[in-house]
Amino acid sequence: MSCRSEAIARIREGVESLAKLADLAEGADKADKHAECSGYLFQICTVGTALADFAGLRAEATDGEG
Q1: How big is the CA angle at 58 (ends 53 and 61), to the nearest 5 degrees?
Q2: What angle do CA 29, 16, 27 make, to 5 degrees?
Q3: SS3 annotation, 10-62
Q4: Is the pLDDT of residue 66 over 60?
Q5: What is the pTM of this model?
Q6: Please, how many CA atoms are within 13 Å of residue 39, restricted to the half-sphere of its CB?
Q7: Are 44 and 25 in contact (CB under 8 A)?
Q8: Cα gap 31→22, rounded to integer Å
Q9: CA distance 48 to 7
Q10: Measured on CA atoms in the order 7, 9, 12, 18, is the torsion positive or negative?
Q11: How far apart (Å, rounded) are the C-alpha atoms in residues 24 and 39?
């Protein structure tokens, strides 16, 4: 697996995790579990930031590779 393929696979896993967290947050919101919903939203922000950082680092590392 190439470096780019590995990065894409990891990002895809992260996006799937974000979708699951969004579903959990939505369910908690509908159940009026505000603290639980806030926890899921915080996790979404944390995972999103980590993905953005990872993608940026991978892009820098592979910049210029054919």
Answers
A1: 125
A2: 15
A3: HHHHHHHHHHHHHHHHHHHHHCCCHHHHHHHHHHHHHHHHHHHHHHHHHHHHH
A4: no
A5: 0.72
A6: 7
A7: yes
A8: 14
A9: 15
A10: negative
A11: 10
Strand, helix or coil at 5? helix
Q: Distance between CA atoms of 19 and 14, rounded to whole angstroms?
A: 9
d(CA 22, CA 47): 12
Burial class (CB in 10 A: 0-12, 13-18, 19+), 40: buried
List, for residues 6-34, the tens digit of each pLDDT value. 878 888 888 899 999 999 999 999 999 99
Q: Which two tokens stand for residue 29?
A: 């919101």
Q: Which among 41, 51, 46 has a CA at the least distance from the CA of 15? A: 51
